[in-house]
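Supplementary Note 3. Input sequence used for the single-chain structure prediction.
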Amino acid sequence: MKKNFETVGVMIDVSRNAVMSMDGLKRFLPLLKKMGYNMVMLYTEDTYEVDGEPYFGYMRGRYSKAELKELDAFAASLGITMIPCIQTLAHISTFLKWGTSPHVLDGRVPVECEGILSIDDERTYELIDHMFASVSECFASRKIHIGMDEAHMLGRGKHLDLHGYEPVEVLMRRHLDRISEIAKKYDYELMIWSDMFFKSWNNGEYYIPKREVPKEIIENFPDSVIPVYWDYYHCDEQSYSDMIENHQQISDKTWFAGGNWSWCGFIPHNRFTLKSMIPAMDACRKHKIRHVFFAMWGDNGGECSHFAQLPSLYYLGQYAKGITDEEKIKAGFKWLIGIDFDEFINIDCPNDVVPHNSGPKNPSKYMLYSDYFNDFLDYTVKLGEGYRYADFAEQLRATAKKSRTYGYVFDTAAKLCDVMAIKYELGLRTRKAYEAGDKAELERLAKNEYVEVVKRIEVFARAFEKQWFKDNKPHGFDVQDHRIGALLRRTNSCRKRILDYVNGKIDRIEELDEKLLPYGRKGYEQSIDSNRDATVNTP
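The predicted structure, written as discrete structure tokens, is reproduced below.
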């Protein structure tokens, strides 16, 4: 058996609307332990209590210090280490937006530009000290992840105006030195995302082939800091190997952070997670990376239940132990979860109406919210594909009935598919009927499909609400209410205008008079080729 990793963890995003509840985490953490994980990070941009900063996490469902202490103790009782994961440079715009922090003086927030703190500003380091003081009370671990990723405009905002140009790696090092001084007060070892130390000398690119790292980059990375190489996208071992070797020129402490894909809507991408992370883990083993974890982001809403990710989480946890026999992994999953692995991983299916050749796609979200009239995404739809959603709904409903524990995530997915069985093609069908001047078909759609899809959206919304409140704190669901509420309002509005057109109250639907243009570069290139072929074949 291959040698185990020392750390196999997950990082749960609790900063993009969804903040997992205490109950949700107390159901989730024991599962993680049973699946082979020994470390958890809660990614908290501002969703944790900070003394002296009442607007930090204000109305966002932040964890109190008492809650974090309770979670840390609970995790420790399971044999899981919780490492605090915060932000100390970028990605804290939700706090900075208030403009009412004690660190606002003369109406000026210590911000480089939107979402990025100003370095060299003493108020910045006072704020960071407050962050450290608060989390140090709550977590036993003396490691802390301080973020510092994707600060793309660092040195190009107010700092440039005040001090002139300085290289990004110089600014990063100076900021890190100041934070390191603060960290020493609390006996912390720092971890940071590594991207900013690569983009500065690669024209803004992070993922590059193996090459010699410039001496000044190496010198500007502190020996005491752990770089975390994050990569969720590649499906070949060589890409990961190249970047690991690039990192190992900077530090022999490098950790790897992969992605367990939860951030594309209501539905996870378990299959792509395995397609991308198995070669990543093979590369980590090859290059003796001893610490790995998998980020479960919640970008743009945090709709996905992490309990829907159990197949990929289990598979990766076992793979990290050196267990590579797929049948053995699947048998172990069935024993632990009570549902066949292949049946559970089918929860991915609502996104399977389109190919995933170039990476994960999420039609179950983008076509849910696609507009019926301003429907540029309908360019990607082929009539007749939507029928598959009815089959998906039946499959998911059957699984939901088999599990009292996890049935709710399948029920939500099934009811989403019920919506999509109509909604996926409805905009395109509306447009085709309008372009053909087929008022009878438009009337039929308005009186049948548009009415039925409203009913199904309402049913789905109730199921999704049940799922959200089972897993998460209530904060953030207002965003979902606004989105789904807007979808319902728009559906009824479009239905009314269709009937007005059919009944002669209006003589046109102007949005539908505008021709669809290709969506995305690939679609544009295909349309050019199609037009070129059509021209050649014209007599």
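The mean pLDDT is 93. The beta strands are 7-13, 39-43, 81-85, 111-113, 116-117, 143-145, 189-193, 226-230, 255-259, 291-296.
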